[in-house]
Amino acid sequence: MLTMHGFLIPSTDLLMKLRTLYPDAMQKKSISFCLKICYFIRYWITELWIMFKMDANLTKTMEEFQELVKSQGEELHWHLIDTAQINSRDWSRKLTQRIKPNCSKKRKVSLLFDHLEPQELAEHLTYLEFKSFRRISFSDYQNYIVNGCVKDNPTMERSIALCNGISQWVQLMVLSRPTPQLRAEVLTKFIHVAQKLYQLQNFNTLMAVIGGLCHSSISRLKDTTSHVSHDVTKVLNEMTELLSSCRNYDNYRRVYNECSSFKIPILGVHLKDLIALHEAMPDFLEDHKINVPKLHSLYNHINELILLQNIAPPLEANMDLVHLLTLSLDLYYTEDEMYELSYAREPRSHRAPPVTPSKPPVVADWASGVSPKPDPKTISKHVQRMVDSVFKNYDLDQDGYISQEEFEKIATSFPFSFCVMDKDREGQISRQEITAYFMRASSICSKLGLGFLHNFQETTYLRPTFCDNCAGFLWGVIKQGYRCKDCGMNCHKQCKELVVFECKKRSKFPVGENTLPSDHGQPGNFTAGGKGSTNDCSAGDEEPFSYPHGDGDIHTEVSKDRTIMLMGSSAQKISVRLQPAVKHRATQTENEPLSPCLQVPSPQHCRMTDPTNHFPTSPAPSPCPSPVPIRKRAYAKWENKDSIRKAKAEGRGAKPGTQELEKEKSLLKEENSALKIQLGDAHKRIETLRAELRKYAVDNEQHQKGS
């Protein structure tokens, strides 16, 4: 009865009633009744001490009660109410202890999604699910039943968020592939994962995976599902039927009751049962008597779930893969954003009638809308653990770098957009760079904002300048780009939201004679040459969910032309112009499945292009169905920057030699030649525009004379 009292009266109110009864009994000289109260409280503290750990008001009230008993002069009573043992309990042991592996031999597990077997993926998802499930206490179940929501119930909220995160991750991993064939491969893989989850008797994660596959953003992909084999589709239908809500989840309940040993139930189904039982039966019977059968029934149902937490799963987890999955599941997307991703992959056919929105056959609707945002400290911990795991497995020579190809393969496990600045080494990515990238990507996806943003100001450059984010040239006559007032970084208007390196503020940074700052906050004025700023890998606004709308001026067309970059199986950046009807707010997709790959142009490449067209020609997507990333040069590098050359010179700690000076001189000559060619092309373009303007003026004058 003491365990279930929360259904009838708050714990603090119950203790206050006991506090009122004790002095009354002392006045009546009823020492035996006072002893009963003290023994009752002693049992409460000893057996249900976790209630006091989770309720600060209850602990404070108990300490006040102890002082009251002490003031009455009864030493025996005062020693019975020992609040010191509350703080002496190691209450977090159950929450933090790791699941012990069943095998003594540690196995090697790949960190690449495309190389992971369905069995391995199912086991590690089960590890994460059980770790979250076993943290739910008796009080958490009780609070959810009484309140009907997860407010002020962080443990239950995290469990629900994990379920939703897995469901969204499944959808995004399918939508991250550029072609229907590759999407079908991922879809098939997750169906096999669902089979393994069923064998592990992990029904809660099974519900999340099947719910993601049955979501209308995935089920509407007809071109994708047409490449899924009949046998695999049959398995999906069987799983969908198993988890169907028909007849109050009758199929699931029958299979679940037949299971023994380790199993993880569908938490939403059992919580609904508890809420229904709580609402159907009254708390009190006639003459204000407590409805004891109701409390017994609720206790039996909750205790059954608690007992399942003591059965360890029959699996062995690789913590490196656990860290990778933990970070990749930190996703927070709305239904509208999911549909935009889906329609960007396979646009709606004009011939087919519009699809009527319908409820998916499998959905944990009790968990909808729950996506708590972790604090920056939690995100930093997840990122650091993942980075440590990556370098432990891929930095074999322990020099603090991994190759570009290795990181591209790792990034396929994340539905983040992919743009890395290879700042330190040619083709090598440092620990700091990968940490900065994932910190920004995770912060954006969790919609936390960033604490290291630059203070960009629109600037007019009087000398040729390159973008520090994408290495592209800052085109235009005035207001070509943005410059950080604190650290001096230069970038395109489209690239200023993509910078992943934090702003290292300086005491004072002179603007210099080669720049003219513009009024901060004014929209950029692009001339004819301004369009050239879109020929880099970061031509679009990549920050998810916060794309600014058009400024409403003559340059609204520039704001509508956004590049959405996706790290898919082919590891290619895809440039797409979004029409006003489909203003994308996410970053993990592109508008057309067969859009070409956008590559970063070099100055030499610009010599071979038409001076009137600053957009690079793009090759067709690779027909190779293999999910192994194939990308020659789709990442931005810090090039043509005096600051980088200066940093490298300082790092050597000595004056450069003759060969190094000659090499640098040769490099500067090549850059100067390329810039001269580009400048000449720009002059030609300006002269062409002037000629067209003069011709237009003459034609207009003749037309006026003729009229």
TrEMBL record:
Basic and acidic residues bias (residue ranges): 643-653
Name of a matching Pfam family: EF-hand_5
SMART domains membership: C1, EFh, RasGEF
Signal peptide: none
Entry-linked InterPro entries: C1-like_sf (IPR046349), DAG/PE-bd (IPR020454), EF-hand-dom_pair (IPR011992), EF_Hand_1_Ca_BS (IPR018247), EF_hand_dom (IPR002048), PKC_DAG/PE (IPR002219), Ras-like_GEF (IPR008937), Ras-like_Gua-exchang_fac_N (IPR000651)
Superkingdom of source: Eukaryota
Topological category with respect to the lipid bilayer: Peripheral membrane protein
Location (main, coarse): membrane
Domain (Ras-GEF): residue spans on this chain: 117-348
A GO molecular function held by the record: calcium ion binding
Span of domain Phorbol-ester/DAG-type: 453-503
Any one annotated GO CC term: cytosol
Keyword check for Metal-binding: yes
N-terminal Ras-GEF domain span: 1-88
Domain EF-hand: 382-417
Keywords from the UniProt entry: Calcium, Cell membrane, Coiled coil, Cytoplasm, Differentiation, Endoplasmic reticulum, Golgi apparatus, Guanine-nucleotide releasing factor, Membrane, Metal-binding, Repeat, Zinc, Zinc-finger
Entries under Gene3D superfamilies matching the protein: 3.30.60.20, 6.10.250.2730, EF-hand (1.10.238.10), Ras guanine-nucleotide exchange factors catalytic domain (1.10.840.10), Son of sevenless (SoS) protein Chain: S domain 1 (1.20.870.10)
Family affiliation: Belongs to the RASGRP family.
Function of the protein: Functions as a diacylglycerol (DAG)-regulated nucleotide exchange factor specifically activating Ras through the exchange of bound GDP for GTP.
Name used for this protein in its record: RAS guanyl-releasing protein 1
